[in-house]
Amino acid sequence: MIKLLEQNKKYILGLSGGPDSVFLFYYLLDRGIKNFIACHVNYNFRTDSNKDLALVKKMCEKNNIKLIFKNINQNYSELNQNFESWARKIRYDFFCKELEKNGAQAILIAHNLNDHIETYLMQTQNNKKVSFYGIRAESIYENKKIIRPIISYKKSFILKYLKSQNISYIIDSTNSDIKYERNKIRKNLSEKSFDNFIKEIDLKNEKIKEYNIKIDLLLNSKELDLLNLNNNEEWNEYLIFRFLEYNGLNVEIYCSKKSFIKEIIKQLKSNKSFIEISKGNFILMKDYNKFKIINKKEINIFELSDFEDENFKKFLIDNNINENSNIIITNNWKKYQSKLYVNDKLLSKIYKNKKVNYFERYKNVLIFNKTSKIVLNKIDI
After folding, report:
1. Same domain for 141 and 249?
2. Where do the tRNA(Ile)-lysidine/2-thiocytidine synthase N-terminal domain residues begin and end (predicted)?
């Protein structure tokens, strides 16, 4: 990967002061790649975190490398989310900001082969669908390119190199705290097993790649034809996972239970023609043989009954309706369809017989007399 970096391009290097980023720092310099800016985040999470900053300052000054650091003042007793996820977002957002400000082409992160294997084991342990097993050598974050030049290097090689060169680095004491899932895995992981894990990862990622080639042809809108589901549960899970991801539900997927996608598939394959699942800012809807992702802003349910209301008056005028007492105006078809009549026929039966799309029903404004329950306006059926 390091061979692919270009000397004439500018990079942002995430420099924590730990062995991996320190290794990458000197490895870049040794190969003549000096056009980079080191960026460091001091979270002040550990009492000795200032030692990290002192080390990276010394490294950069000695080697004439620009250093930009961000100091975090946070009351960690009030942090109500996962520290690692929170810290990662702080760090990557900072790197992206500096990339833009300094006109850099990419961000260099010092993930190594051990990180790659550990991530894979965490993914399989959590049993959640992912778009890639392990850590990609290159990825995109907020439209910025992330490169991991030492992803193929074992931790043992990195430590051996640093020792042979008498290079100092900082050991983060929290890395031995087994309350963190990654640290538990790391403690019991042997590099002797890496070859087998790499084969597993490559096979799984190849399978995902095969699926993605087919799935990419199906992802072109906010709806998915349910005829694309079949008896292959793995295919079904990746198809629904990618469809949700494609439509911007990344956060909702990763913050959900392990069984979230399986539960969706179970409902989609049921005999029910209409299902609504609320998820964050979205509604996941089974609409006959279509699976639709709808932003909640697209479904604005209303009900008007005050004849002094300007919107109420406008609906009556637009539909040439003269009476204004005892009238309800709404698009809440779910609430009223089994009570209202259109040309002496129950609205729910008309919708059912004509298979009117459930989402389209929200677009029908129903103007009716509360007593007679007769729809007074023309509706699209």
Report:
1. no
2. 10-188
Which is higher by pLDDT, 219 or 126? Answer: 219
* pLDDT (tens digit per residue) in 339-357: 999 999 999 999 999 999 9
Do residue 67 and residue 118 come from a single domain? Answer: yes
Task: Provide the whole-model pTM.
Answer: 0.78
One-letter amino acid at 362 equals Y
Number of domains in the chain: 3
User: Span 82-105, mean pLDDT?
Assistant: 94
Answer yes or no: is 128 within a domain. Answer: yes
Could you give the CA distance from residue 158 to residue 20 in angstroms, rounded to a whole number? 7
**Cα–Cα distance measured from residue 35 to residue 17, given in angstroms and rounded to the nearest whole number:** 19
Flag the least confident range among 4-13, 137-146, 201-210.
4-13
pLDDT digits (tens, 9 = 90+) for 112-161: 999 999 999 999 988 778 889 999 999 999 999 999 999 999 999 999 99
258-283: string of b/e by CB count within 10 Å (b at 16+)? eebbbebbeebeeeeeeeeeebeebb
Q: Are residues 210 and 290 in the same domain?
A: yes
List binding-site positions for ATP: 16-21
> What distance in Å separates the CA atoms of residue 373 and residue 366, rounded to the nearest whole number?
10
Q: 172 and 91 in one domain?
A: yes
Residues 6+ apart with CB under 8 A from 202: none
Binding-site residues, in ranges, read: 16-21
Q: How far is CA 191 from CA 114, 120, 194, 323, in A?
A: 8, 14, 5, 81
Contact 288, 268 (CB under 8 A): no
Angstrom distance (rounded) from CA 56 to CA 69: 10
pLDDT at 102: 97
Could you tell me if residue 2 is inside a domain? no
Of 294, 112, 291, the closest CA to residue 194 belongs to 112
Q: Is 356 a member of any domain?
A: yes
| Domain-ending residue, one of 163, 189, 215 | 189
Choose the final residue of a domain: 266, 298, 330: 298
